[in-house]
Write a structure and sequence with these properties.
One of its GO terms (molecular function) is FAD binding. The chain has eight helices and 19 strands. A hairpin with a 2-residue loop joins strand 9 and strand 10. The protein is of the alpha+beta class and 310 residues long. The strands form six sheets. A five-stranded antiparallel β-sheet has the order 6-7-13-11-12. Strands 1-2-5-3 form a four-stranded mixed β-sheet, covered by helices on one side. It has three domains: 82 residues, Uridine Diphospho-n-acetylenolpyruvylglucosamine Reductase, domain 2 (2-Layer Sandwich); 110 residues, Uridine Diphospho-n-acetylenolpyruvylglucosamine Reductase, domain 3, CATH 3.30.465.10; 84 residues, UDP-N-acetylenolpyruvoylglucosamine reductase, C-terminal domain (Uridine Diphospho-n-acetylenolpyruvylglucosamine Reductase, domain 1, Alpha-Beta Complex).
C-alpha cells in the first residue's frame, strides 16, 4: 500500500487554494460511488472553480502526492483499501448553458441533466444519454453511449486541464473517441466542460424517444440495487449479457455481490458487499464465460484504489 503523509501543514497549504469546508480528511468513498463500496480517501477535495482545479493539480505535483479524479462514481469501483493522496470531485461544476443549437455543460453536471436541458430547448442529439447516470466528464472519459448513440456523435470541443495544471481547449477529434474509450486517461486530462452541437427538433418527438428509452432502462435494469452499471464492453459478434445469461451465472455471487437476475450484464451490491467481493464476481464471470464460450469479456467499469491491508 502506498504511504502518503498528510499533516496539518499540508492541509493548511491546500486550504489556501480550496475553502476548508471543501476539504475532507480520511473521507469514506462509499458515500461517493453508485456501488456504495470503497475505502477512504486520504484527502477529498471538492472544487468549485476551474482555477481551483488547475492549482490543485499543480499543488499535487509540487508535493509529489498521488492525484485521482472521480465524477459521481457511477462507472467506477473503488477498492476497499481506499485511495491515497488527493481525490478530487467536480460535482459542484454542474452548470449547463444553451446558445442556439450549442449546449455547453460543465464536467460535474449529470449527462442525464444535459439531455433534459436539450429537450427543454427542443434540441435533438442527446436523447441516447437520458438514462446514463454518469457525469458529463465521465461520459467523455469513456465515450459513453446507449441505444445507438455515443458522445462522439455530438461533441465538438472539450475544455480540459492537463497534467501540469494548464487549461486548454481541444477539438473532439483530438480525444480519439471510440467505443467506450478515449485518450483522456492516457493523457491525464481532467475534463472541465463539454461543448455539444445539437439540432433543432420537435419537443414532443424528442420527449417520446426519451420516455421510451427511460422505460426500457427502468424495466430491464436492476436500479433497485447499488451497482456500477453495465460491467462489460460488448465483445465483437456477441452481447455480454447474453453470454453471461447462457453461462447460468444470474443469481450467482460471492458474499454480498451477485450477478443480477434482472439483467445479466449488471453485478449488484445486494447485501453490503465489499469491493473485493464485487471484483471477485467480475473475475468469476470472466473465467466462466471464457471457459464456456472462449470469449474474453473486457471490463467497461474502471477499478481504482488500493487493495485492503491483509
Amino acid at each position: 500500500m502506498t504511504v502518503v503523509t498528510i499533516n496539518d501543514a499540508f492541509i493548511r497549504d491546500l486550504s489556501e487554494i480550496v475553502k476548508t469546508e471543501n476539504i475532507k480528511v480520511n473521507e469514506p468513498l462509499n458515500a461517493h460511488t453508485y456501488t456504495q463500496m470503497g475505502g477512504n480517501a486520504d484527502v477529498f477535495v471538492t472544487a468549485s472553480r476551474y482555477e481551483e482545479v488547475e492549482q490543485v493539480v499543480r499543488f499535487a505535483n509540487e508535493h509529489n502526492v498521488p492525484f485521482t479524479l472521480i465524477g459521481n462514481g457511477s462507472n467506477m469501483i473503488i477498492k476497499d483499501g481506499g485511495i491515497r493522496g488527493i481525490v478530487l470531485s467536480l460535482k459542484k461544476l454542474d452548470d449547463i448553458q444553451v446558445d442556439g443549437t450549442r449546449l455547453v455543460a460543465q464536467s460535474g453536471a449529470r449527462i442525464i441533466d444535459a439531455s433534459r436541458e436539450a429537450l427543454s430547448q427542443s434540441l435533438t442529439g442527446l436523447e441516447f444519454a437520458c438514462g446514463i447516470p454518469g457525469t458529463v466528464g465521465g461520459a467523455l472519459f469513456m465515450n459513453a453511449g446507449a441505444y445507438g448513440g455515443e458522445i462522439k456523435d455530438v461533441l465538438t470541443e472539450a475544455v480540459v486541464v492537463d497534467r501540469e495544471g494548464n487549461l486548454k481547449t481541444l477539438a473532439a477529434e483530438d480525444l480519439d473517441l471510440a467505443y467506450r474509450t478515449s485518450n483522456i486517461p492516457d493523457n491525464g486530462y481532467i475534463v472541465m466542460e463539454a461543448r455539444f452541437d445539437l439540432k433543432e427538433g420537435n419537443y414532443e418527438d424528442i420527449k417520446a424517444v426519451m420516455d421510451d428509452l427511460t422505460f426500457k432502462r427502468e424495466s430491464k435494469q436492476p436500479l433497485e440495487y447499488p451497482s456500477c452499471g453495465s460491467v462489460f464492453k460488448r465483445p465483437p459478434g456477441y452481447f455480454a449479457g447474453k453470454l453471461i445469461q447462457d453461462s447460468d451465472l444470474q443469481g450467482k455471487g460471492i458474499g454480498g455481490a451477485e450477478v443480477s437476475t434482472k439483467h445479466a450484464g449488471f453485478i449488484i451490491n445486494k447485501d453490503h458487499a465489499t469491493a473485493t467481493e464485487y471484483i471477485d464476481v467480475i473475475h468469476m464471470v470472466q473465467r466462466t464465460v471464457k471457459d464456456k464460450f472462449g470469449v474474453e469479456l473486457e471490463r467497461e467499469v474502471k477499478i481504482i484504489g488500493e487493495d485492503p491491508e491483509s
